[in-house]
Design goal:
The chain has 311 residues and is of the alpha+beta class. It contains 4 helices and 18 strands. The chain has one domain. The N terminus and C terminus are likely disordered. The structure holds zinc ion. Zinc ion (ZN) binds next to helix 1.
Length: 311
C-alpha cells in the first residue's frame, strides 16, 4: 500500500505554483547512470575548467561513500573541486545520519553510525543506534522526540546538528552533472555555475522529494539521471533519482525560470519497484544557504516497537 500525503506537497516557489504529480515518470528517459567508473577523454576538470595535472588524475569518488560503500569513480575532476565537494559533504553527512541509522547502512569501517543530540535544558543527550544483533535502540532526552501519531504509529525525531542545505543540493547537482553524457553536459554547462555560487539564484530549484521505504533495498547506492523525453513546458527538464539504503530521493536540476508565472508539475515520485508496505514522501527545501539546525522525523510502526525498539 502506498501511503502518501501529496495534497500537502503543492506549494508556491518564487511565484511559480508547483504541483507534484505521481504518474509522469514515464515521460522521463534515463540518460546517465552511476556505473562503476565514468571515464571522459578530457584534459580539463569538467566542473571548473582547470587543467587536470598528471598527478591529480587520480580517480575520485563519483558517489560519496556517505551514501553507502561503492566503487564508483571518475577521472574528470581536479583536486580543488574534489576538496570543495568534501566540504559540502560534511552537511550531507549530518543530513544522512538518521537515514543511515534507520537503513542500517555501514560506513567504511563496517559500522552503522550512532546518533547523538544534546538538547538545551536536558542533562543527557538523545542517543539512537543499532546494536550488534541489528536491534534498534536508543534513549531519549525527552519524550517529545518520540511523538505518538493518531494511527497508533510513533514519529521518531532526530534533532540534527547544523548543516548547510544549499551544500547538500550542490553535492547532488555535482553528481548529476557527472552523469551527463558529453553532448548534454556541453549544452547545459550553465548549470555548473551554481556549484560555485554562494547565493541561490532564480534558475535554481533546490527541492528534493524523499521517499522512505520499509526495507533495506539498496545496499549500494544507485544514481540515475533522467531527461524529459517530450516537449512540455510545465515539467522540469532533468531529474536525478538517488537510491540508497531505504531511501529514494528525487532531485530537480536547475530550471530556466519562465518569463511569466506558470504552473510547474513536478513529476514525482519515483518508480515504485517491488512490493513495500509503507512509504513516506517528504519535500525537502534546500533553499537555505546558511548553516541551519533541522529535525528529521521517521514514522515507526507501533507493533514492531516492543520487539525492536527499546528506550
Ligand atoms: Zn575543478
Amino acid at each position: 500500500m502506498l501511503t502518501t500525503k501529496y495534497d500537502t506537497l503543492s506549494y508556491s516557489y518564487k511565484g511559480i505554483k508547483v504541483f507534484p504529480r505521481l504518474d509522469l515518470l514515464r515521460i522521463y528517459k534515463t540518460i546517465g547512470h552511476s556505473t562503476n567508473t565514468i571515464i571522459r577523454n578530457t584534459e580539463n576538470c569538467i566542473f571548473c575548467g582547470d587543467e587536470l595535472k598528471t598527478n591529480n588524475k587520480t580517480h575520485s569518488h563519483l558517489i560519496p561513500e556517505l551514501f553507502g560503500k561503492n566503487s564508483s569513480r571518475n577521472n574528470f575532476e581536479c583536486d580543488g573541486c574534489n576538496e570543495l565537494s568534501g566540504k559540502w559533504e560534511s552537511s550531507v553527512g549530518t543530513f544522512l545520519t538518521p537515514i543511515r541509522i534507520i537503513s542500517r547502512m555501514k560506513n567504511k569501517r563496517g559500522r552503522i553510525p550512532k546518533f547523538k543530540s544534546r538538547l538545551d535544558g536536558f542533562d543527557y543527550p538523545t542517543e539512537i543506534y543499532v546494536d550488534e544483533s541489528g536491534i534498534f535502540k536508543g534513549k531519549l532526552a525527552t519524550l517529545d522526540d518520540f511523538r505518538p501519531q493518531e494511527d497508533g504509529s510513533r514519529k521518531l525525531v532526530f534533532r540534527l546538528g547544523r548543516a548547510n542545505p544549499f551544500h547538500i543540493y550542490k553535492v547532488f547537482l555535482k553528481i548529476a552533472l557527472s552523469l551527463m553524457p558529453e553532448e548534454v553536459l556541453q549544452k547545459e554547462s550553465w548549470m555548473k555555475q551554481h556549484l560555485f555560487k554562494e547565493e541561490i539564484d532564480k534558475q535554481l530549484f533546490p527541492y528534493m522529494f524523499k521517499v522512505f521505504t520499509d526495507k533495506i533495498i539498496f545496499p549500494k547506492p544507485i544514481f540515475e539521471l533522467k531527461r524529459l523525453a517530450v516537449h512540455h513546458k510545465y515539467h522540469p527538464q532533468y531529474l536525478m533519482i538517488a537510491y540508497f539504503g531505504k531511501t529514494m530521493i528525487e532531485i530537480v536540476l536547475p530550471i530556466k525560470k519562465p518569463k511569466k508565472k506558470i504552473v510547474i508539475n513536478m513529476p514525482p515520485i519515483l518508480e515504485i519497484q517491488g512490493a513495500r508496505q509503507h512509504y513516506e514522501v517528504e519535500k525537502i527545501d534546500l533553499c537555505d544557504t546558511e548553516n541551519t539546525k533541522w529535525d528529521m522525523t521517521f514514522t515507526l510502526q507501533i507493533n514492531n516497537m516492543s520487539k525492536d525498539i527499546k528506550f
